[in-house]
Amino acid sequence: MKLKGADILINCLVEQGVDTVFGYPGGTVLDIYDALYKSGKIDHVLTAHEQGAAHAADGYARVTGKTGVCFATSGPGATNLVTGIATAFMDSIPLVAITGNVGISLLGRDSFQEIDIVGITIPITKHNFIVKDVTELAPTIRRAFKIAGSGRKGPVLIDILKNVQIAECEYTPEEPEKIIPEKVEQGKLKAISELINASKKPVIIAGGGVIAADAAQLVHELAQKADCPVTYTLMGKGCIPETDPLCLGMIGMHGTIATAKALSEADTVIALGTRFSDRVALNRDKFAKGKTVIHVDIDAAEIDKNVTATQHIMADVGETLKSLLPLIEEKQRKDWRVKVEAFKKENAAKKNTSIRAFSILKTASALAPEKSTLVTDVGQHQMWAAQNYPVNVPRRFCSSGGLGTMGYGMGAAIGAAFGSGNLSVLVTGDGCFRMNMNEMITAVSRRVPMVILLMDNGVLGMVRQWQKVFYSHRFSQTNLNQNIDYVKYAESVGARGIALNKDDDVEKVLKTAFETAEKESIPVLVDCKISEDDNVLPMIKPGQTYDKQLETLEEN
Amino acid sequence: MAEEKKYTIGALASNKSGVLTRITGLFTRRGYNIESLSACATEDPEVSRMTIILKGDEYILYQLIKQMDKMEDIIKVGCANELDCVYRELLLVKVHAAPEMRSQIIEINEIYKAKTVDLSPETMILEITGDPDKLDAFLKVIQPYGILEMQRTGVTALARGSHTLKDRTDGEYKKLSHEE
After folding, report:
1. One fold for both B5-82 and B86-156?
2. In the structure, what pLDDT confidence band is assigned to residue B7 with cuts at 50, 70 and 90?
3. Residue A468 has pLDDT above 90, yes or no
4. Is A88 strand, coil or helix?
5. Chain A partners of B73 at a C-beta cutoff of 8 Å?
6. Would you call B29 and A123 a contact, using CB atoms and an 8 Å cutoff?
7. Among A297, A350, A475, A502, whose CB has the most other CB atoms within 10 angstroms?
8. What percent of chain A has pLDDT over 90?
9. A268 φ, ψ to 5°?
10. Backbone φ and ψ of A103, nearest 5°
11. Alpha-carbon distance A453 to A133, whole Å?
12. How far apart are the first and last CA of chain A?
């Protein structure tokens, strides 16, 4: 059948199983929005700002495993997506961003709202396209989804010229192409299994690749068979239940004491779907010195990039583990487990429970509905949430890891709620919340059930913590110094707001918050007043090794 | 740091606008030191071929190849250093050549197998093809006459024998030996 480009776009999205799109209309996407209106097959979530739409599509993708989709108009609409696209790129989240652009007769003439968004997004997309001819439109959209969702996942942008949206061409529906993972090299598997079988003190590091490959169960099987403790990166949170005897907790700059001790003693590191970023490896030359390193990653460029592997496999973690598991000897590593138990005990004993955020997060995690998603912004509250709010199932955690995008949370929490059909718990700080608090309007208008735990200390806590440690308490521009009544703000946009000022009120207030959010299907903001001097601990300074973990801060 | 060397990298890419921007952007972004890059369409008009000369160590070489290999527009990429290759570069150089100097320059041309492709009352344009070292040597001799302007194409390379880049299957990248 002959269709207009805009209708072809909507049809192709439906082909790909897209049910929800986050976006914002404008001049060069009028035809796309008209086609969306007529089709009625896709739910469009109108955000307050295009950045919110990009983060929402990202949150939707993280909880569903599907590719998230966002729309924006040309020029400022497109540039407003950039931070969201970059966030998805750094965390390997599948996203298709669709922008309109001026018609071909106006292109390259600095026309109104014209911008080279393809040029701008080259470094932050897996690939991007500008569609100048309507016959290329359907194949481009199909290819974009394939690129976004295969291999190491990531964002793809399609810039569609206005004339393409209007022009007609023949359209034939197609089934989406199946993504078949590449075969795992069998020879390597044997070598790797021998290294694991021979190891006395192995540790598994599970990263975001485990979540992306839906391989948490297989990682668990490997851990049990090899009697091997597991630590996870921020991106891998949810891949192992916190209560599991083999779970060490998080790795990294603010990882657990148990992880740091186990890593320092380990003879073998089994890195699954993780890239040894500077927040994990800290000192890439010393991180695994003298240890056997097994690295499984789908992206060849990650192998030997930061840490040199003894043996590696460039493949999907799930496919690799399926073939590897039969070669792993079922073994009890008693001596190692006794040590690991001791590390875990020490970890529990030294846990920083005195800060108010701890009791808030503990209580919230106990009260939150079972299928809710934990979403964080970036900073101290993010690390506190990662440390103290257990996430025992994959795809129930959204956080900007690689890019560290302040302001990510509001949009992502909305997207996560649409993707999961359940409540989102957003843990944020006042610095982050102020960046995109406009999206609360979106959450109210679409009646998104959400509990916002606003860790309100009046300062940019993480930056301030670094100023304490590295800059002799010179608090340059980290005091927000504003008296905002966040409860009133929440009420003003039609949400609910509750102040939380006393330790004794934590349980009562949070109970009300969760009940209200669920019953009324509405965002409820809890303004949690916390001390500006609370720190994130333990901490390993950049460039340091895991045996130099600090349990208190020697403040200069 | 491992030893700095020159590496010749061959790549086949889709012959579309913007591909070169993506590739050069990658080099800038990741801080690779590229000495020359030459690119043009091949016998298949949909495919372009490029030869890149990289200055760096093995770590950078393998990172560059793997990062390029990830790009959607790249069909094949590989290092040609271990192969027996024919390397060629073309140079056009415009020199001061007053009538009394011409015969001297033509004599140099003969020795280097260069050609005179343009002659004006005061200048000559010389053309020479060869490997980069030969071009360097030629320029050294020509320099004293006064170079008005010049253009080199950058190195192009093809492996000898039946070996082709298109059919190359490296499979696995060579293990890197990092220095402590």
Report:
1. yes
2. very high
3. yes
4. helix
5. 127
6. yes
7. A297
8. 96
9. -140, 130
10. -65, 160
11. 48
12. 72
pLDDT tens for each residue of A367-422:
999 999 999 999 999 999 999 999 999 999 999 999 999 999 999 999 999 999 99
Residues 6+ away with beta carbon under 8 Å from A120: A78, A79, A82
What are the residues whose beta carbons fall under 8 Å from the beta carbon of A503, sequence distance 6 or more? Answer: A356, A359
Interface test with B, best of A291, A308, A313 (most B CBs within 10 A): A308
Q: Which is the CATH superfamily of the domain at A2-170?
A: Thiamin diphosphate (ThDP)-binding fold, Pyr/PP domains (3.40.50.970)
Residues of chain A with CATH 3.40.50.970: 2-170, 356-529
Residue spans of beta strands (DSSP E) within A304-343: 311-314
Please list the active-site residues of A.
Answer: 50, 112-113, 162, 462
d(CA A424, CA A374): 6
Tokens, residue A320: 């690799």
Structurally, at CATH architecture level, domain B5-82 sits in: 2-Layer Sandwich (3.30)
Q: Does A306 touch chain B (CB under 8 A)?
A: no
DSSP for A504-535?
A: GGHHHHHHHHHHHHHHHT-EEEEEEE--TT--
Q: How many CB pairs (< 8 A) connect A and B? A: 34
Measured CA to CA, the distance from residue A74 to residue A25 in angstroms comes to 10
Q: How far apart, in Å, are the Cα atoms of A351 and each of A280, A316, A380, A387, A394?
A: 20, 35, 16, 10, 24
CB contact under 8 A, B21 and A305: no
Interface test with A, best of B21, B65, B172 (most A CBs within 10 A): B172
How distant, in Å, are the alpha carbons of A312, A313, B2, B56, B66 from that of B172? 11, 10, 21, 21, 11
| CA atoms of A138 and A353, how far apart (whole Å) | 55
**Segments making up each domain of chain B, as ranges:** 5-82, 86-156
| Closest CA in chain B for residue A310 | B175
Provide the whole-model pTM.
Answer: 0.95
Is A127 in Cβ contact with B173 (below 8 Å)?
A: no
CATH fold for domain A186-350:
Rossmann fold (3.40.50)
Nearest beta carbon to residue A308 from set B63, B73, B176: B176
Side by side, the strands of the sheet bearing A292-297 are A247-250, A230-232, A202-206, A268-272, A292-297, A311-314
CB B108 within 8 A of CB B141: yes
3-state DSSP assignment of residue A244: coil
- Nearest CA distance, A305 vs chain B (angstrom): 7
CA distance A98 to A74: 10
Q: Is residue A108 less than 8 Å (CB to CB) from chain B? A: no
Structure tokens at A214: 């839906």
CATH number of B86-156: 3.30.70.1150
Q: Which residues of B touch A154 (CB under 8 A)?
A: none
CATH class of A356-529: alpha beta
Over 50: is that where the pLDDT of A342 sits? yes
Q: What is the mean pLDDT of residues A147-154?
A: 97
| A119 at B interface, C-beta within 8 A | yes
How many C-beta atoms surround the C-beta of residue A347 within 10 A?
19
